[in-house]
Batch of 4 targets.
Target 1
Amino acid sequence: MLQTRVIPPAEGAYQYPLLIKRLLMSGARYEKTREIIYRDQLRYSYPTLIERVARLANVLSAAGVKSGDTVAVMDWDSHRYLECMFAIPMIGAVIHTINVRLSPEQILYTMNHAEDRFVLVNSEFVGLYQAIAPHLTTVEKTLLLTDAPEKTAELPNLVGEYEQLLAAASAQYDFADFDENSVATTFYTTGTTGNPKGVYFTHRQLVLHTMGVSTIMGAIDSVRLLGTNDVYMPITPMFHVHAWGLPYVATMLGLKQVYPGRYDPEFLVELWRKEKVTFSHCVPTILQMLLNAKGAQGTDFGGWKIVIGGSALNRTLYETAKARGIQLTAAYGMSETGPLVSCAHLNDELMAGSEDERTTYRIKAGVPGPLVEAAIVDADGNFLPADGETQGELVLRAPWLTEGYFNEPQKGAELWAGGWLHTGDVATLDSMGVIDIRDRIKDVIKTGGEWISSLDLEDLISRHVAVREVAVVGIADPQWGERPFALLVIREGHEIGARELKEHLKPFVELGHLSKWAIPSQIALVTEIPKTSVGKLDKKRIRLDITEWQATNSTFLSTL
């Protein structure tokens, strides 16, 4: 081990732990009158936020929550969720952000696996909670969350209603220091096989992630997305990787924050207009829904900056949003990475290039942020060249990546094989450090002796004027091993079949952008493409649906 010089701290020097409470206390120093807003129902200032966090800490402590306990939250995006994201870890407990879009069986599994002891339940989920409550093994008490405090609901071992409890609690709480490596949050991934896996993050990791995100989005000029004058509204659920960690960033910087509750495209447009929102983040499918909303038609969204992640950002969606005044920027991450590790960046060379070239790089996964290391490896773990052409699995290092899966050491060891976090994504790295995600390893299609990227094919298909939404998967083929199969949602007033799609793709083959083997010989025209609980394309479900359609000779299918 390298021998370095270490000087002991002076007697009495404060050993500063990186704790989430530091983020909360920073926000109010900038603009105390900036507001936290919940739908069209509530708004309050940062001093009130700090006071309410203290009240909630007192409520939880009085209910018996101790350091190390896991406290679960079942709620839509709200001021209450923001308060829980601070108060629970600030008293040394762990917040479990429950994905309310999972099946009841999966929610039950995650709660028992996480060993939840206390649960805060939105009134909308009372029926769901009552159904699984007899099978919960560790939960001791519940708290009710509701937009109508005068209404009651039956919950087992109910402590009381959130607002009434806060109103009766002290507005002062002495948040003690403790080890910055204490676990602060946990949530469960939605894997394609087996049970969801528990990802967890420490106080130190979340503080460093917050600092990293604020640097990536606020200090790099080509993507300057987020500053203290922005108005923030998440369109990524708070149960999904802490809404990508942006509520922590927004609070640290003292931004005006707008929480929309359950997502409704029409109401999101209304809130954007009323509150003058300038910064959001979401997956492509949610943005598409928002742009298709009735209230969005004819609207100029000028000044709205949106970070796109979770799925690839294709050129068609980028240009569609740009025509409506929205500046989209691609970013990359996953549940296990906190999540943000890279964001689109245009260096001087690219800024001097054509608009088409700039667009190409704005929709890529981008350049790793400060403190992030990225590499690509082959199946044996050997490092591959960063030449922009060689493909391999993207592996990462950063100080905020999860260190494993809760109570599943073997899966954690697989995640960190060779001392790098394995993403499961096929990618290239180029000489400028740009990450270009080509596909998920499990979604790459091998046909005609060639590897086909489903993401590349989806991007090219989406450029057809008739296509509103597309998903491509590989299906078994006795002659070619696999063949690409496309699901299409068609724009109103348009038509397309497999032959028309082939004619659309032929020029890309002639230009060398696409292999001839990549042209789908079968497509299905559907009204909706299956999505996961966080809005990503559910390709596992899509493959099962296609198998069923083929077995029944469904009229959805169009064949060359």
Target 2
Amino acid sequence: MQRELAQRLDISLKDDAKTFKRLKFNFKKNKHQDHTELLDQAGSDFKYSDCKDEFWNPEKFSLLYGTPLWDQASKSERVLLNQLYWVGYYSQIISAEIATIYFNQTAAAGLYGIEDFRLVCETLDFESMQERAHIEAFKIVSEEVEKEVFGKRIFTYPMRPYFSETMIFQNTNFFKRLWKRFQLQSYGLLSSSNAFIACQYLSVRGLRTLNGKIVQHQLSEFYEQADDKENAPIPSKISYYHFMDESYHFNSSNIIGTDLLKMLKKPTAFEKRIATMGIEGTLKDHSHFTSTVNGIFWYEPATFNAIYKVLRSRIFKLNHQDAIHMMELCFCQENQGMNESFKTHQIALESYKNYLQEIDYLNDAAKDGGKMRSTSIESHLKSNKKALNSFKRKIYA
């Protein structure tokens, strides 16, 4: 009787025994296999000199793999391109996880007023702790590599606030960044005070994690399949530890953002619109692809300055004219690397569409992939050619 009187709302997580059991099991398993200590130790032990001559990922996960630069690269240059893929890829993951930590907390706050949702909050708290360990390990490796190889930042950056553009190479400008900041800050306020939007954030997180899952499983296999795991390159160990944690994060995103969401009362028109905007924003962010880092959906022209610095560095030693010519070959002519990256984008699109079918508040355009559907090799080449001409004029100036 006391318990019944204590209930302030019509629903409780425990009303759905199956969902509660799944979430509890996932949380328990994640805590049991937590890789935080291993990640901290890996970061502490990392010395670039110990593994600078080794691949850290499967060969196809190399910077500009399959492009003319890769085709002409020496063995040592290919090793570096493979390592720079790791640096570029996980620099992007850092940005995403900074935002995740913040929105995990606002989502948990949005659920405080609902009975028996302690388990959800503790799940998100624990995952945020893991994200902080991921970020630290990625930063240690990436920053040391760029310091040793280039003496300056190329893909890395100082810590950034959650409201920065999530995609570190984006088609943006001052006003777009300002508008994005306003949207993210407003979304944080809404998700911290609305149970539906709080749960729906996990739908967005699940969509973004689904993209990572496609690539990160393959990255983790490099360590998992190593004959001598003890002496495997530390960055490959970090890839594996990270993927193991993230597999549980994807499960919790799916449970909270899909099953648990269905337990709430039907959303208002306003809640539906905010939720749809969150999904549409992700599909827009992922409407590009890049040969630079296959599996990360950057706006490729935004990477031109970084790639120019790589080509002009003491490693590749290209003069200005040769660097620009190589960029034209890699970015403005169809090649294997471009086709491989587009293929990854299309695999992600189909995965997203399957994931979104169960979300009944979405409109048909979003369920069908939104802005991602307009991506093509032809539009990609057209955009790159125009942007590279502009880049050349800027460099000459």
Target 3
Amino acid sequence: MRIPYQLLSADYIRQIREHGLTEAQVLAQMQQFKSGGAPIRLNRPCTVGDGILSIPAGEKEAFVKRHEREAARGRLMKFVPASGAASRMFKEWFRCLEEDCFDTEAVAHSFAGDIRKFAFYEDLNRLVSGRDQSLQQWLEQGRYRDILALILTAEGLNYGYLPKALLKFHAYPDGSRTALEEHLVEAALYVKDHRRICRVHFTVSEEHRHDVEKYLSGIIKRYERQHDVHFDIDVSIQSADTDTIAVDMENRPFIDEAGKLVLRPGGHGALLSNLNQLSEGDIVFVKNIDNVVPDHLKPPAALHKKVLGGYLITLQEQIFHCLRRLAGDFLNDSDLDQIVSFCREKLCIVFPPSFAALPPASKRDMVFSKLNRPVRVCGMVKNEGEPGGGPFWVDEEDGTQSLQIIEEHQFDPHSRAQRAVWSLATHFNPVDLVCGIRDYRDRKHDLQQFVNQRAFSIVKKSEKGRELRALELPGFWNGAMASWITVFVEVPLETFNPVKTVYDLLRPVHQADPVFSSGVSGQTLS
């Protein structure tokens, strides 16, 4: 059924403004649906020695010490995108709840064996015990769907509807920890200052904010005592004014059953606004909520965080030194040549073909512009089949190339040549970033000034069974940081241990006791 609409009717304008948007923004978004995004053109994958730095083992200690000195000064903060819901993590279990997949002895036996290895097992067992039976009895009786219902729905743990932050990931002798708790423990290892203050910022969805803040208030004192620190924690939500309008398959505004425009969250790129509004910390570590490890693996993870932090701080100091020289009155041609060499060799900055012919003053202005930007050092791990984006050299319109983190949807999927370049990638992006967000005068950069606004994406979604097209802002570590100074550093694969499905929690790396983790099956329900 076609629903008549008038985009600029009084009711729609009121709705748009109440949402924190303007008519001009919505009309511009409508135009983006019509024009489509501009595909990224891949030049070549980044490899070690060509866009990816491998830091020699003998140099890492110096970077660790540099990190620790600046941490003591209170410059560091941890920023954790934690708005992801757990529903996709339990997609297969929801299917089994609806369709009853426990139709073979092998599947039932695997489920019964695996359930004991999850960190939420004891919570589940207590719920069943409250019903005058034991979880073991339910397993023996084959009540697998009842168990799934107790895990996933509001009649039990409600895990299918909670944020990942509040799911029990790891079991310890003294109790289990959520992903949120593991991030606090990890933060105590590498962002505390000389007063033992640890600054941590979580971004959460509005619907889960109350639950996350309530949970934090109940655990924070215990972790402060255990680790002899004080946590300075902020929680923010993705601002409604970063939402985007949805359209139907003919690019008309999508109207819901109540006659309202559908305005949707603009994807993880909207989190740039949260990062931009941080009031403390000029060196910010970014790591997703589901990428944490048990305690016995935290020391190597923290070590590599310190190496990345120390490398960024060292590099940033060199950049600031160059900027002060460029801004000063005494810079000769030899000085400028040295700075240009630094840009090319240390920062992988490529200047346009016309650069060599420019007069000295124009060269100086261009170099200053290239350097006076936020900086990010991004850990990259060897590609071993994990899904996700990776590091590439990308062709720019001015004839240069830049280092970018690219995801598959960003290039032309119909180009055989581009697919061939994509297939040659040697590393992928684990979302392991450390960001320098202040300039050489200790003023915060306006991060919105460094976004590639054309790097938006259009995706198909549905609203109560009706198809729609949604607009996602340039990705947080993709187009939103496209014009940052970007440095890729190789880090070990052990630093990347995400939990995308519930079965990832059965991997040995996510079993808190290395001995306990042996023999994990993780057979899927099918």
Target 4
Amino acid sequence: MRRHRSFVYCLILVALAALPVAAHAAGAIAPHRAVYDLSLAKARSSRAASSVDGTMTFSWKDVCDGWSITYDSRMELVFPERGSRSVGWRYTAWESNDSTRMRFFLQRFMNGQKTLERRGRARKGPDGGEAVITRPEKRTLALETGTMFPGEHSRALLDAARKGERFLYAQVFDGTGENDGLFAANAVILDEKAGAGHDLDSPLLDGTPSWRMNLAFYAPGDTDGTPQSEQSVRYYANGIAGTLTLDYGDFVVRAKLDKLTALDRPDCE
């Protein structure tokens, strides 16, 4: 099985860079709360999970000086030889409007017990920057020039899609997964839909253009080996992700968009 790249980033990708700097190109990004039903899409070996059941909930909020996300997931997996296992993730983050600063807090759970708590912050500029992990122990990671924060990366993906570009490679830092949250993302942008055939009957999706995207996640600087994980998503121009497939090697999880709610924007004057 591939190493854990975490469900968290796929939903951070959903958040998009819902930042005012992108509004002139794409119209208003939609603050929202999305709920996804998790199920097993495919098992590739006898050691793979034979059943997956769970829910993940994601919200994006405009907080005037940037954007914040809250992510929560609980999933029950059944393995033929190892029995059942309950896993969960909880993640909150803030990213500044100019994508030069971010803060994050991550927790992981296994069978009801907390197995990881990670907290940190990051800052960068034209010549790179650094991320400071403050929990579980303090350490500093250098961020090379061109490293993107998650909102910035998502904005770049949609900008590339609108321009008709098919590929985007970037080093990204979000604080989740292996390597303390630093990883390489290789995206392939596929077909575009002009608003038809959306994932859910919702005013937030009606008439909204979207693109199908495949993403592969690697250790920093490594795109020659096997990805840590892969995913496919229908990504809407207003920053909402439709149904996702999350490939972990031995098995594939389907995250079906089930509920979608618009959130109010604050008065930032």
